[in-house]
Design brief:
single chain; 278 residues; 8 strands; globular
Length: 278
């Protein structure tokens, strides 16, 4: 949801303390730099869904000034309410499509905030929510379609245990590569994929993550120009060489998925055609 971020927005609580200090006291200089390294997608949510995206990684936060919930990634984005409504409207017009929404991180959240967010999720998606199960064995696309479930919500906080239609973090492993080097990323992805459990879902994060040293060396750069461009070709080749399904690829994610006319999505969809030969 970083397409909702504006370079004039406040620095988010997910940023390190020194970045937040820069955002407060040197905002004219620092916020454009933070913005350039915070944006991971340009397209709005409906364009992403139309392009083939079926997994969404959300980071959310509150502000001390009100009770609303916002998307956040370095800088604050929009409130969550309108984009969530757009998602459910899109699903209502695409009855056989399934979407996985992963509430990955929560910042400046109290129990009251969690309750408000969960109430919002339940209100927006209602009957579309797939209930929690201890096993994935029966959860096929045919079963989801027959039950008219369209949304799996992962809620990576213990608050989820109070609800039968929020999936806990432990059933959806998502190891973070945390590197700026493509070779290290590929090695990490291979090792994690080989070690993955067949019993739970698995997310391969095909992303490079800049640290402060990298950003300081590339103050005039952007995530898209400096890291994504060098990463994409290698990652697309890596996906194409893997098999999908049990013991292989499950969920793969990337930054700037719409680059080159959504070639990332097209590569993943083409890889799924291997199922017909398994």
């Amino acid at each position: 949801m970083t397409y909702t971020i504006n370079r004039r927005n406040d620095v988010g609580p997910d940023a390190p303390n020194y970045v937040r200090a820069l955002g407060r006291y040197c905002s004219l200089v620092s916020k454009p730099i933070i913005f350039n390294w915070s944006i991971t997608q340009h397209d709005n949510i409906k364009d992403q869904l139309n392009g083939g995206i079926r997994y969404l990684d959300f980071r959310v936060a509150t502000k001390p000034t009100n009770g609303d919930i916002y998307f956040v990634h370095g800088l604050y984005g929009s409130t969550i309410y309108q984009p969530l409504q757009e998602i459910t409207e899109w699903l209502s017009s695409h009855k056989n499509e399934i979407l996985i929404i992963d509430f990955q991180h929560f910042y400046s959240f109290s129990e009251v905030n969690h309750r408000h967010l969960v109430d919002t999720i339940l209100h927006v998606f209602q009957r579309k929510l797939c209930p929690l199960a201890s096993s994935f064995d029966h959860i096929t696309l045919n079963w989801l379609n027959s039950e008219r479930y369209q949304v799996i919500v992962i809620y990576r906080n213990s608050f989820a245990q109070n609800y039968s239609n929020l999936w806990p973090s432990g059933l959806w492993k998502t190891p973070w590569p945390n590197t700026v080097r493509v070779s290290e990323l590929v090695d990490f992805l291979n090792l994690e994929l080989e070690a993955r459990s067949f019993q739970i879902a698995f997310i391969s994060q095909c992303i490079l993550t800049p640290d402060i040293q990298y950003v300081l060396k590339h103050l005039c750069g952007t995530l898209q120009r400096n890291l994504v461009a060098s990463c994409q070709k290698t990652i697309l080749s890596w996906i194409s060489q893997k098999r999908p399904g049990r013991g292989g690829l499950n969920i793969v994610i990337a930054d700037f998925v719409s680059d080159n006319n959504f070639i990332f999505c097209k590569t993943v969809i083409e890889n799924n055609r291997k199922f017909s030969h398994l």
